[in-house]
Design brief:
Blueprint: H1 2-27, H2 50-59, H3 77-89, H4 100-109, H5 121-124, H6 140-160, E1 167-170, H7 175-180, E2 194-198, H8 204-211, E3 218-220, E4 231-234, E5 249-251
Parallel strand pairs: 3-5
Antiparallel strand pairs: 1-2, 2-4, 3-4
Helix pairs in contact: 1-4
The chain binds zinc ion.
Amino acid sequence: MRVHTLKRALVACALALPGAAIAVVAAAPAAHADGCYTWQRTLTPGRSGEDVRQLQIRVAGWAGSGGIVRIDGRYGAETAAAVRRFQSAYGLRSDGVAGPQTFAKLYQLQDDDCTPAHFSYTELDDGCGQTGWTGGPLPAGETRANALRTMWKLEALRRSLGDRPLNVTSGFRDLACNRQVGGASDSQHLYGNAADLVSRSRSLCDVARAARSHGFSGIYGPGYPNHDSHVHVDSRRENDRDRTRNTTSWSAPDCGVGAAD
Ligand SMILES: [Zn+2]
């Protein structure tokens, strides 16, 4: 028995070591090479640049109740607050400064194609049995970039719901697909800005309510026509390429989610 216990202690020790090693690496400036994107400096309020923009894309899901994080490459109060929420959600020191610890967590969360750990381009690309990002109102690259932003918000939403699977039943749709499924004529799905969600572990109302704090300015769920089997989330307020006004629109009456919330 004692030998067994000792063995277990050794295993535990070996498991603890990689974590310690990572902490040392993270403390060194810009030592980490990442397959997707590597930050080269600590980012604080007042900074601006492409590195800030890359950060904003990844923390935009931590916008807070009814908020959005503008992806403008400028580290203002909005970005700092989102970084604080991100840090606190992942058990880091919550100081609103994006330094080695924050970047280490982001590297851990992002795949080499820059998508977050639990969502992928193939999950969000053209529905109706097609693949790819063409056939919508925007150039394919723009649509794909919107889908990436959608995914980082979904990752935050998923985290807030206990890190359990959140499944996308419909992401980007080209014009033909959108017509086929009877989508709204200027649907956010056409822009890569929307996702329809289901969850086996959380109720649709839990998803709809939580989405309000993760940068989604469009939410439709239970009680809204044709939305009793999924929750639709989108980023309409940030979409300057569609024909609708940039306002928030929430409706899941059965969940107490409405425009006035
Ligand atoms: Zn939808």
